[in-house]
Amino acid sequence: MTKEELEERKQLEEKVLQNIRRMQNASVRSHPGIYIREIGQYFDFLSKNLSFPSLGADLPYDMLALFESTWYSLENLLADHDEKALSKVQTIVSSSGVLDLFAMLAVLTPNGGLLRYRTNSFLRTVAYSIPTAFLKSPSRKNRNELINSDKVLEVKTALFRIASIVRSIETDSADEGEFEIGQDFRTRFDPDLINKDRVLALISLFKMEMNAAPQNGDTALLLEKIDIIEREVRKKSGTKWGKVLALLLVIYGFASDVKSLNPEIYQKATEIVSTIISIVTQGGQVDRVSAINGPSERLMLEPFIDPEDESSGSK
């Protein structure tokens, strides 16, 4: 690998590991789409970088040790999200022995255990390759080796298949949930009254805040999601406001979660998203807007308040 390729791999490794570590301390059910996506990236990274005979010796210990807990997080998420996909990945995991392999690697890695195992494995491989009647037949090799090249290839294939299934779930679910607002609803809530210019201005402000913040997996993910919202809002017609609002709520929840760790970075960003949500939910209220002769900057918005913030503030 070139120096540039190694640096790119290192950056991706740090991003994936940061996401997985954060997941261990979060409620994954609160943001299922985000965490399913990140687990898919983790499996994809492992499928490309686990090799024989290195056996993950060049990977961070947590990348190996957190595998089983990450798998169970995915299993719980898919149980709520897509039972058919859950059945498929469970079959792949059970037939490939991927959990056993990563458990062995996690046990062997500390204190040079993995290096000793690889050395002994190499010596046994050399012994099996010597053509003599007094040594065991080469056909017995796979039954005597716990970890061999065939097993690693099987696990890599399983990880690739799981990552592919997870990506398909994200693709299928990205356009779900859009609903048509009929005329009966438009008498009270008309999305055409929402001030798109103001929403886009606040989106630009949010992106400025994120670009000025230290760049990591959290900021990259927030920027990626806000870009989806911006593209949707910029449509001249047919804006899917259900999709916009759903993504805004996910971003708000995610930003509020990371704000507890870095309030100085995410406080303003969270407030901006809260204001956008208020514009989307209140700006389409027909009677409210009609009272001031159409949407304008003078429209007084009630802030969108997280129930947890409201309860904590009253204490």
The residue ranges in which pLDDT falls below 50 over 5 or more consecutive positions are 121-144, 171-179, 293-300, 310-315
Radius of gyration: 25 Å
User: Structural class of the helices, strands and pairings?
Assistant: mainly alpha
Order of helices and strands: HHHHHHHHHHHHHHHH
Shape: elongated
Number of strands: 0
What is the number of helices?
A: 16
Percent range of helical residues: over 70%
End-to-end separation in angstroms reads 57 Å
Mean pLDDT: 75
Number of domains: 2
Largest sheet: none
Strand content: under 5%
Any overview of this molecule?
Helix 2 crosses helix 4. This protein has 16 helices and no strands. Residues 121-144, 171-179, 293-300 and 310-315 have low confidence and may be disordered. It is mostly helical. It has 2 domains: 3-174, no CATH class; 183-314, no CATH class.
